[in-house]
Amino acid sequence: MSDKKYIQSIQRASRILKFIADTGSAKLVDICHETGLKKSTVFGIVQTLEYEGYLAKSNEGFEYCLGLSTLKMGLSYMKDTKIDATVHELLTRLVEKIDETAYFIMKIGSQYHYLDYVLSSQPLKVVPGEGRFIDIPDHSAVAKVFHHYKDEDFEFAKDVEEVFEGTNCFAAPYRNGDSAIGCVVLTGPSYRYKESHLEETMVAYREILYDMGLEDCL
What we know:
By secondary structure, the protein is of the alpha+beta class. Helices cover 42% and strands 23% of the residues. The longest helix has 17 residues, at 195-211.
């Protein structure tokens, strides 16, 4: 029997913050529906989080979004864990092995954010646009990862010319516990980056994570 003890109020606050981070913003009624908590309980937690700067009102005060205190925590996490350097090394190793452009993409609200990318050495390659925030259709490999990463035995998603004709895409979750903090994506022209190569990419991704001591991220 586990002797670990968890504080219920902190768990509830954490669930609310995660929900708003995933949706971008949410009304009080949406938070109640998601958490299954009473309106008075949710209001008390939300009011406290707002006072501490972890939430802020948006949409003329009808919804809540993340506050500036979460930005400070995020920047501190980036600095202390050096995740940006870890991600760049991971992408670089994948490109060296597969030689197709690799990305690390995070889902923030309804949009997706390029944290980093490494270009392939190929003369014809997929190059990301200038905007770091992008909209991605639900049938893309990236969206499939964030929709299904909790499914049992899920390893990776593929997009075989589903979004863009002549382009294939591989996407696999980069996990932290029971969450996917992002996904690793490789994409290239379909005449070269064939569907059969996507399984090989998963093998390479797994090997690199183990080699870097990041097997818990699988």
